[in-house]
Design goal:
Blueprint: E1 7-9, E2 12-14, E3 21-25, H1 33-45, E4 50-54, H2 61-70, E5 75-78, H3 83-91, E6 96-99, H4 107-120, E7 123-129, H5 135-138, H6 145-162, E8 168-173, H7 177-190, E9 195-197, H8 205-221, E10 227-228, H9 236-249, E11 257-261, H10 272-282, E12 290-295, H11 301-306, E13 310-313, E14 319-324, E15 327-333, H12 337-353
Parallel strand pairs: 3-4, 3-10, 4-5, 5-6, 6-7, 7-8, 8-9, 9-10, 11-12, 12-13
Antiparallel strand pairs: 1-2, 13-14, 14-15
Helix pairs in contact: 1-2, 3-4, 4-6, 6-7, 7-8, 8-9, 10-12
Length: 354
């Protein structure tokens, strides 16, 4: 990974060679303390390491303080339009506050937030989106879209430094993956600031995951990015699982069960996709890094089973072959293929977790 300076978001190190951290955002009404706190707990259970919570107005600060006290993971307060609310969120215990150069009210207001964060020992995320650029930069027709994202951030980074705030990170996001990639490449070439990466307004579970995998994946493959969020029009648990899949696919981090399955063909008699989904659901809370394979026939089945901790190979008959660590273990009824494979994974995870 590209060397960036390290900051802390609560107890999570960001940058400076630390593992890429997974972030997501609550989608409940912040004033509903019970629902928001419960959602953060579920997010943490599936691997979220930093939660972001919107603080839409001063009336939400009391609820935010209670949520902060109950959270098992660091929380970033997401604040727009008001430096006073951003400062209030920091005083309520926020580990970090995200402010937007496009709507915080200018550099003077931002410096107030930066000073409060510095005095309280907290961090700030300078979060620039293509849809809300710093107004003077937005009007500059000589700059490309990625350059406008970078320039907006640089102006506020300068303000942070003048305020003697060094605990800050930057995000440069567009709904266009190519703009996002280019903006972050440009920033990485000009600064050692830690970068939170993602494609904003990416879309639904399918299209959004694809756009995010392109934007985030390309950057991470080039060593750019210290925290990630996959932004989906879906529950935060879906965002977190997608983020971990991207990290796992790039060999950056492993957590939980990786379920691989064949696409199926005319040789396949079982519903491979359904079985794989059942295995994934049954093992979704496993944190040990394990691999399960669901194969529809013996063409690639044996080869995949050798690389998996546990595998099931289906065939044309009414039974399926169960493999453990690449070795044949037993034949099970095809109807029980999913439960048999999941049970083996759960048993293996219990040994690892010990």
């Amino acid at each position: 990974m590209k060397k960036t300076r390290r900051i802390m978001v609560g107890n999570v190190p960001v940058g400076g060679g630390a593992p890429v951290a997974v972030q997501s955002m609550t989608k409940t009404q912040t004033e509903d303390v019970r629902a928001t706190a419960a959602q953060i707990r579920r997010m943490a259970e599936v691997g979220c390491e930093i939660a972001r919570v919107a603080v839409p107005g001063a009336g939400a600060l009391g609820a935010f303080a209670v949520i902060m006290a109950a959270s098992p993971i660091p929380v970033v307060a997401d604040v727009h339009f008001s430096a006073d609310i951003a400062i209030g969120a920091l005083e309520a215990g926020a580990d970090c506050v995200r402010v937007n150069p496009g709507n915080i009210g200018g550099r003077g207001e931002f410096r107030r937030v930066a000073a409060a964060a510095r005095n309280l020992g907290r961090s700030v995320r300078i979060g620039v989106n293509s849809g809300s650029l710093y107004p003077p930069v937005k009007k500059n027709s000589r700059l490309s879209a990625p350059e406008k994202l970078v320039e907006s951030a640089l102006i506020f980074m300068e303000s942070a430094e003048k305020t003697k705030l060094t605990e800050y990170k930057v995000s440069l996001k567009s709904s266009d993956p190519l703009e996002t990639i280019e903006a972050n490449r440009l920033m990485a070439s000009r600064s050692d600031v830690p970068l939170h990466i993602g494609v904003t307004e990416a879309g639904d579970r399918f299209a959004g995951a694809v756009r995010s995998a392109v934007g985030i994946g390309v950057l991470l493959s080039e060593g750019i990015g210290d925290t990630v969020r996959v932004s989906l029009s879906a529950p935060p648990e879906a965002e977190i699982r997608a983020a971990w899949e991207i990290l796992r696919s790039l060999g950056l981090r492993r957590r939980g069960v990786e379920v691989v399955s064949c696409p199926g063909c005319s040789r396949t008699r079982a519903e491979v996709g359904k079985i794989a989904a059942e295995v994934a659901r049954a093992t979704s809370r496993v944190t040990a890094p394990l691999k399960a394979a669901v194969m529809g026939c013996e063409v690639n089945g044996h080869g995949e089973s050798e690389g998996a901790d546990a595998a099931i190979i289906l065939g044309r008959g009414k039974t399926a072959a169960l493999y453990i660590g690449g070795e044949y273990a037993a034949r099970v009824p095809a109807a029980d293929a999913a439960s048999a494979l999941a049970a083996k994974i759960l048993k293996l995870s219990s040994f690892i977790d010990k």
